[in-house]
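Journal club side-thread
Mid-discussion, someone asked how the predicted structure for our own chain would compare to the paper's figures. Pasting it here so we can look after the session.
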Amino acid sequence: MISSISKEFSWRRRWIGWRNRMLASPRFQRMAVRFPPTRPVARRRARALFDLVAGFTYSQILAACIDTGLLEVLAEGPQDAAAIAARIDLPVAGAERLLHGAAALGLAEPLGDRWVLGADGAALRGNPGIGEMVAHHRLLYADLADPVALLRRGGGGGALSGLWHYAEAAGTGDAAAVAAYSALMAASQPMVAAQAIDAYPFHRHRRLLDVGGGEGAFLAAVAARVSGIDLGLFDLPAVAERARTRFDSAGLRARSTTFGGDFLRDPLPHGYDIVSLIRVLHDHDDAPALALLRNIHAALPPGGTVFVAEPMARTRGAEAVGDAYFGFYLLAMGSGRPRGSDEIAAMLREAGFVRPHVLTTAMPLTASAIVAIRG
């Protein structure tokens, strides 16, 4: 067995070495572009490499579209550049430059001498949480201005970590401290909530406790789709208070209970047959993440379920989201790391859960899911 594995790695090593020598060869590159059968592949790889090089510029064009409100203006219907410039407070030349850049990225589209919303711009408007993420990316980009320095200091210590410093301060945080991060999570939660609710039959349960549930966006989404399930939310006291206000406004007071505390230090409420962690586990390093799972295990009855949904590392078709985007996002935050489903399953077993299994989600780019049972 060991010999066969060794042979496989030896073959792969030789193949990778040959492949890389060829791809790095200017002669091979010229041949690949001129030779009709390989030309489409060469062009596609060149485009992908250029996109990698130019990615920050693309992101800043998107940020300008969000900051100026360009996409909202274009959604109103065809307008000429001068009218758009007046609406978004840019000189006409600046507006035209932004419009052409946005069109190249699919965010805008020319229609004769006027401009309308592009296909990707329309899709982005349908997911307002993305706009919120783009708006706060200026903090992440400030930290990534010197990515080597960020790696050397082990993460944190920059602009992004200041957004959620309260969560690392022994469970403290007043209303002002938690507002920005809680609002961001609430705005972007519907994308994950839709994947989670589609992937798992929550109607099989009587009482659902969402740990680290923020302002209650996930529970509100569950309530809209699943009748007859009681809702509980556990988060820091100031965050739980924001959730209580949300539930009251949504007419969910009779179905919901909020609990304030620190889920790494305080016992969780009992009496719930399923506990959810929505984009929570990856925010924490291994030791506190395992402590959280053990705390959930202690709160659940035998046969109770834990449900974890978040973007996961090494997910087929979404590899860049895990180890690239969230790998460095969480590094800048100063806590946590993306984990593969196999790593999460191992942590669940170590915490005392049994039969962990991965659920299929329609959009793993947004979130993957895994459930396990309290033995």
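Post-session note: The first helix runs from residue 2 to 24.
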